Each structure stands twice: as structure tokens, then as C-alpha cells.
From TrEMBL:
The lineage of its organism: Eukaryota, Metazoa, Chordata, Craniata, Vertebrata. This is Arginyl-tRNA--protein transferase 1. InterPro entries: Acyl_CoA_acyltransferase (IPR016181), Arg-tRNA-P_Trfase_1_euk (IPR017137), N-end_Aminoacyl_Trfase (IPR030700), N-end_Aminoacyl_Trfase_C (IPR007472), N-end_Aminoacyl_Trfase_N (IPR007471). Residues 1-74, 228-286, 309-330 are annotated as: Disordered. Keywords: Acyltransferase, Transferase, Ubl conjugation pathway.
Length: 598
């Protein structure tokens, strides 16, 4: 899960990183990549790029880039005024390198690209084709070759019902907040995500190199100038985000205990069950039933006449809790369990704040150091990193820097789309941070780190349940946002199998890119690490690249179709890599995203 650094410039790009990595004030000779970016800076003074971009009146051509049904979903905001173009450099296939999941030194195979900038819609479409980002590096495992196939997994929050173990974690948090009660159990079952650099272990040096090279002036800023200058020439002003929206995105808070008021529930130990089949002993009863019975008897003592209010079924004792219509036997919802009211004299106070991390909001900047210190302790204690490994630059590169452009469409969530940190504040200090991306159709979980002193609260499970609840909350305003993506599911890796416990959930078929319920996939994965989940032998990838010549290339100040670029350059050696890129990203993204070629 990834974003931008705290000392970023006005454009929201992490200018700090170059200083950290290369030394403050140091000026290096230009690399080829920097030379390209310097040339791109002249885009704002050219007309060629803006002329070649699709303009709003050409609605049919623009709509071809949208996913099927986009207009019906109410998302036609991708216009020249409102959206930035994604700019990527394809780095090709990387094989036979270290895997952070199984420890194999030569088993991992993946394809990757560096994203200078990326729209949230393009990233949504990419993760629906098996891609995932780590900072600004976006990668896709070669599923039928890599040692540990990584299947994209998503949960369906609208149908989600917490399991018994999930409820136990939520109740444990409530007991701690209400009474300061600390669980005496261990945390052996707490899921532990691999470190961010483990997920892209073989690409670590490449990511570091690219991040330094691409930091002087980002292509997204240059393209933004081009778009704005092109619109000014047409007499139009680019839309600006309202300050109100920015304030909302920085100050969204979820306060535990702010739900509907209800009576505090005292915790009692359940009675020990009778041994064996001794019928002379009473059967084991639920603590809830015992509490009701005690209250009933107490009220009967206070009111001997037996004038009790409420409904009474024939042959049953009077009830103090008349059933509500249609809700008498329904289990508590996730929100009921999370936001159960606390007593006024509660021992602790928990707040969850969502702060935009890229471009960094004022709240993100103000809490950067405190958040980093939590990350550092987490890496050292939970993952046994040496003290010099979890540096500020590593933290920024993987968990703060993000290529996603912030978007605030009128019908989107109040906080907008993009990259965020979900901070868990206990009694005024950060104890955990969930790194998330908010996309058109989902909340995508990137990473979680927490203060090891609070491991007894099972914060990995608790934060996942809060993120599922957060997705449900966003869905209330933005109906198409209805999924919770949990990254990759690796059936052969015990550390990653826990994700299958959040039901209902689906896995992405690696060949046809359709979603299949996980129950149908598990038996297949027991027999083979790599599986095609779609059992229709005739089914194909509907979003596959069909017209590669329509792919958009960004080369020497110009944006042009690959067919034109190919005729001008006559570089047959490039074609294999370009066609591979088109096949992996699909036709829609190939037509929308700009493929940077030197």
C-alpha cells in the first residue's frame, strides 16, 4: 500500500527523496532518463501534444477508452479538463530472482513498469488485470512461471458477515477501550504481511534507481502544464478543486463510540458446562440468557404483581426485551460491533483518521515523523529488520510515494480518490496506520504497520474489519464503490492464506480476468499452484489487446499512436516489448495511458 513524502513541493511530488538518496544539494550529470524529462518540460510550449490528445467533442473516441458500462456507473468525469493522463515506462520481464514469500533465490518472475503518474481509473483497470503497485513501481507476476503465483483477491463488503473469530477481535478491542482490559492470550494467529520490499525483492535496486532519476521534475507536472495551456488557447479554464473538498479530505474522522446509543454491556464469564451426559446437571447456557434471567427475576422481586411490559409467548417467562420488527433474530452488523457505545468513563479513546498522503495533506505532513517512528518499530520488532534498514527514504518510497493523481469528482466520496493513510489514534498518539488507495470501484489495501506494544489487540484483523466497514461507508454515497481489495492471495504461503477468511471473497482468474468465488478456487489450488479458475474452456480475455497500433506513445514532445510511431522509428527491436506491454495492460489502458519511449 504507497504515497508521497512530507516535505513535498507544491505539486505534491517527493522532492525530499532525491536529497535523501543522492545527498542534499548534490547536482549530478544528467542521466538519459533525466534528459528525456528535461525535454518533456518543453511540452507546455508546444502545440503538437495538445493537438494529438483526444478532445471532448470526440465523445465516441474518448468513450472507447472507458471500461464497459462506465457511463451507466455514473463516472463520465474523464475529460480533458478533469483528468490527467497516466505516464508509464515499461521495464519488461524480470526472471530468476529472489522471492520474498518462499525464499527461493531464482524462482520469481514478473513484469514491471515505472509510473510517473497514473489516474485512479487506469489503476483500477490494472489491478483488475492482476497488477499491483509498490510505491510508483507497478508490477504483475508471470503467473504460470513464478514460484509463488499471486492471485488478486477482493472481498464483497456489502454481503460481509464477521466470523466468530472476527467478532472476538472486535469485542477484545471494546473491552480494552471500556475497561483497559488486556487479553491474556497470545497473538500466534495474527496475520503478518510480508514487508513491502519483500514483495518486490528483486526489483528493489531498480525502484531505488528509478526513483532518483525521475525525481527532478515529474512528467505528470509537465503534462498538466500542457493540458492547461491547451485549454487556455481554446478559451477554457481547467477545473480547480474546491478548497472545501481539500479540507474534507484532510479531516475525515471515524470515532469509535459515535454510533447509535445503546446500553453498556457488562462482560460475564460463561458458566462451566456439565460434564458428560449427566442429566441431573443443567445444560450450558449462554451468558446473554443468564443476564436476561437475572434482570427478569430482579424486576419480578421489585414488582410482585407481575405487571410486566412487553410481549410474552405462551408457556414462556415474561421478556424484558420485546423483539423488534424484522430484527429479533438477526445477528449484529459489522457497524454494530465496531461502533458499540462506550461508557462515559471509558479507559481509552480510539479515533480513526483518513489523511491524504499523495499529494501530502497538512495533517499528513504534521504527523509524518510520528507515523514513521511507528513504522520503524514495527519493522524492527515484527520483521526483525536491523535499525539502519527502515530508513525515512525507504518508508517514503514504498508507503508514501504514489503515482495516483488525486481526483475529486462531484459524485465521488467526500475524501476524493487517490492514496491515503488511515491512522489509528489511541489517547492522542498513533498506534497503527493502514495504507490504502481509494479507487472508483474499491478500497485497495496496500500495507499495515502498528506499534508492537499493542499486538495483543490483533490490529491486523481489526484494521481489515475497519477497512471493510469504511468501504461500506463510502458505498453509501458512491454506489459503484463496493469492493475491498486485499492485494495478493498466495495459497502456498501461510502468511497470506488468512485473506481467504474474509467472506464472501473472489479470486481473479489469471487467464480470462473474471472474478470467481474463492470456494470454487481452493480445491483447484490444492492440486496445483497455478490454476485457471474460469472453467469455461471457450472463455477468453475480453479486455485483451486487439489493436496494438492504437496504443498511445509519448516520444520527443509528441503523443502519437503506436502505429505512427512504428512507421517513423522503424525500430523492430522495440516491437516485442511494446506488444508484451499492450497484452498485459489490455486494450483500454493501452489506449489511455502514455507509454514513454526514449
Amino acid at each position: 500500500m504507497q504515497r508521497a513524502g512530507p516535505n513535498s513541493g507544491p505539486g505534491g511530488r517527493n522532492t525530499t527523496l532525491a536529497k535523501v538518496s543522492a545527498g542534499a544539494g548534490t547536482r549530478r550529470d544528467r542521466s538519459p532518463e533525466e534528459a528525456v524529462e528535461a525535454r518533456v518540460g518543453e511540452l507546455g510550449r508546444t502545440r503538437q501534444a495538445s493537438v494529438l490528445l483526444p478532445s471532448p467533442p470526440r465523445a465516441p473516441a474518448l468513450r472507447r477508452g472507458w471500461p464497459q458500462g462506465a457511463e451507466r456507473r455514473g463516472r463520465p468525469w474523464r475529460t480533458l479538463e478533469a483528468a490527467m493522463a497516466s505516464v508509464v515506462e515499461y521495464k519488461g520481464l524480470k526472471a530468476s530472482y529472489h522471492c520474498g514469500y518462499c525464499g527461493s533465490e531464482e524462482g520469481k518472475v514478473s513484469c514491471g513498469m515505472w509510473a510517473h503518474s497514473m489516474t485512479v481509473q487506469d489503476y483500477q483497470d490494472l489491478i483488475d488485470r492482476g497488477w499491483r503497485r509498490s510505491g510508483k513501481y507497478v508490477y504483475k507476476p508471470v503467473m504460470n512461471q513464478t514460484c509463488c503465483p499471486q492471485y488478486t483477491i477482493r472481498c464483497r463488503p456489502l454481503q460481509f458477515q464477521p466470523s466468530k473469530s472476527h467478532k472476538k477481535v472486535l469485542k477484545k478491542m471494546l473491552k480494552f477501550l471500556a475497561k483497559g482490559e488486556i487479553s491474556k492470550g497470545n497473538c500466534e494467529d495474527e496475520p503478518m504481511e510480508p514487508t513491502m520490499d519483500e514483495s518486490v525483492a528483486g526489483d528493489f535496486a531498480l525502484i531505488n534507481k528509478l526513483d532518483i532519476q525521475c525525481d527532478l521534475k515529474t512528467l505528470s507536472d509537465d503534462l498538466k502544464e500542457t493540458f492547461e495551456s491547451g485549454e487556455k488557447k481554446k478559451g477554457k479554464s481547467p477545473k480547480k478543486e474546491e478548497p472545501k473538498e481539500l479540507i474534507q479530505s484532510q479531516h475525515i474522522e471515524e470515532k469509535l463510540g459515535s454510533g447509535e446509543p445503546s446500553h453498556p454491556v457488562k462482560v460475564h464469564m460463561a458458566p462451566k458446562p456439565g460434564k458428560g451426559a449427566d442429566l441431573s446437571k443443567p445444560p450450558c447456557r449462554k451468558a446473554k440468557e443468564i443476564r436476561k434471567e437475572r434482570k427478569r427475576l430482579k424486576l419480578m422481586q421489585q414488582n410482585p404483581a407481575g405487571e410486566l411490559e412487553g410481549f410474552q409467548a405462551q408457556g414462556e417467562p415474561p421478556s424484558l426485551f420485546p423483539p423488534k420488527a424484522n430484527k429479533s433474530n438477526q445477528p449484529k452488523s459489522l457497524e454494530d460491533l465496531i461502533f458499540e457505545s462506550l461508557p462515559e468513563n471509558a479507559s481509552h479513546k480510539l479515533e480513526v483518521r483518513v489523511v491524504r498522503s499523495s499529494p501530502p495533506s497538512s495533517q499528513f505532513k504534521a504527523t509524518f515523523q510520528e507515523s514513521y517512528q511507528v513504522y520503524k518499530r514495527y519493522q524492527m520488532v515484527i520483521h526483525q529488520d536491523p535499525p539502519d534498514k527502515p530508513t525515512v527514504s525507504q518508508f517514503t518510497r514504498f508507503l508514501c510515494s504514489s503515482p495516483l493523481e488525486a481526483e475529486n469528482p462531484p459524485h465521488g466520496p467526500d475524501c476524493g480518490y487517490g492514496s491515503f493513510h488511515q491512522q489509528y489514534w489511541l489517547d492522542g498518539r498513533i498506534i497503527a496506520v493502514g495504507v490504502i488507495d481509494i479507487l472508483p470501484y474499491c478500497v485497495s489495501s496496500v500495507y499495515l504497520y502498528y506499534d508492537p506494544d499493542y499486538s495483543f489487540l490483533s490490529l491486523g484483523v481489526y484494521s481489515a474489519l475497519r477497512e471493510i466497514g469504511f468501504t461500506r461507508q463510502l458505498h453509501q454515497k458512491t454506489s459503484q464503490l463496493s469492493y475491498y481489495y486485499m492485494g495478493f492471495y498466495i495459497h502456498s504461503c501461510p502468511k497470506m492464506k488468512y485473506k481467504g477468511q474474509y467472506r464472501p471473497s473472489d479470486l481473479l482468474c489469471p487467464e480470462t480476468y473474471v472474478w470467481v468465488p474463492i470456494e470454487q478456487c481452493l480445491s483447484l489450488l490444492e492440486n496445483s499452484k497455478y490454476c485457471r479458475f474460469n472453467q469455461d474452456p471457450e472463455a477468453v480475455d475480453e479486455g485483451r489487446s486487439k489493436e496494438p497500433d492504437r496504443l498511445q506513445v509519448f516520444h520527443k514532445k509528441a503523443i502519437l499512436p503506436y502505429g505512427v510511431y512504428k512507421r517513423q522509428r522503424k525500430a523492430a527491436a522495440e516491437e516485442a516489448a511494446v506488444l508484451q506491454y499492450a497484452r498485459l495492460v489490455g486494450q483500454a489502458c493501452a489506449e489511455r495511458m502514455l507509454l514513454l519511449r526514449n
